[in-house]
Amino acid sequence: MSLLFEPIQFGQLELKNRIVIAPMCQYSATEQGEVTYWHEQQWANYALSGAGLCVIEATAIQPEGRISYADLGLWNDTQRDQIKTLLTKVKTLSPMPFAIQLAHAGRKASTDKPWDGKGQFSPDQAHGWQTVSASDIAFNDHDHAPQELSKNGIQKIIQDFSNAAIRAVDAGFELIELHAAHGYLLHQFMSPLANKRSDEYGGCFENRIRMAIETFQSMKAAVPENFPIGVRLSAQDWFKGGWSLEETVALSKQLENLGAVYIHVSSGGLHAQQDIKIGANYQVAFAEAVKKVLHIPVITVGLITEAEQAESILAKGQADAIGLARALLYEPRWPWHAAATLGAKIEIAPQYLRCQPHGVKSLFKPFQH
């Protein structure tokens, strides 16, 4: 049996295999943060992929928390109801569970769509607004400086994370991922490069992680008992004096003790001059370091593109699940090909059973709802 196609538990949620579609921003929502036809076709594609779990894109808990004006939101009931309608429709295609990543972009908000390339909008421009952060330090020198959050502002954001978590449950998601990575707001509080505060939310390690911890605790208290919440972390900032792997390990242990069902290990995104050493498996060692101290599953992600590569990571005990992002956009049936390569069986929609390649024995079986 291929390890990649063994089931895995994220708390009480069982996945049929260990392939996780990692969240990928689509920048295709309305300016009101609502889903569009793009999301319908995209989520349907995910549902038919054969992956074990799909985590949809970073979804803002406040209008000011969006990366761009075209980001998906979950700060009101209209957004929730439209997502619920779409999710109900998509779930008729396959039994694959869907999760949502809840996020606040902090100082990296108020930007253009990446393919339009205009960078950050200032508050007085169309599509722009005043950003906030742990301190009034801009991400780029040419960006408009963020406003340092007051303690009341921090508590308002924590409450909005909780409100969005309740809406996520009501919308029909089966898991929530808290986004504390890639240089967005919670990561901004965690890193000494972005956090120069002198109150209880800045300075020492315990203070810098306080907002992330309080946000996680608030969300856990808001959702039904045992509803699974995982956390995505950047293992390091790839810049001297920044957030470190050792701090990631220490925070991961605390999150496990508080009830996190997994840690999803990525890296970077906090500093504009980060020096990332990109290559195959470039983040796997970070996941391995976190896995060594935890009892909950660890997801690794980043330039994992081949089935044998994913299988080897699991076989070496470096991670418990494999996150795929751009590789799955490029090849939406990546899990099918991985199953064929690794000699495993994979569940697919019965309408596709006849496309099993000639000479490949018993690769497909129909979805079991």
What would your notes on this structure say?
With 369 residues, this protein is of the alpha/beta class. It has one domain (3-344): TIM Barrel (Alpha-Beta Barrel). Helices cover 31% and strands 15% of the residues. The strands form 4 sheets. Strands 3-4-5-8-9-10-11-12 form an 8-stranded parallel beta barrel, surrounded by 6 helices. α2 (77-90) links the parallel β4 and β5 (98-103). α2 runs parallel beside α3 (151-171) and α3 (151-171) runs parallel beside α6. It is globular, with a radius of gyration of 20 Å. It starts with 7 loop residues before the first strand and ends with a strand.
Question: What is shown here, in short?
Answer:
By secondary structure, this protein is an alpha/beta fold. The protein has eleven helices and 14 strands. The model has no long low-confidence stretch (mean pLDDT 97).
Low-confidence stretches: none
Question: Strands of the biggest beta sheet: in what spatial order?
Answer: 3-4-5-8-9-10-11-12
Radius of gyration: 20 Å
Average pLDDT metric: 97
The class by helix and strand makeup works out as: alpha/beta
Query: Can you tell me the overall shape?
Result: globular
What's the total helix number? Answer: 11
Number of folding domains? 1
Which architecture would the CATH scheme give at its second level? Alpha-Beta Barrel
Strand content: 15-25%
Q: Total strand count, please?
A: 14
CATH fold group: TIM Barrel
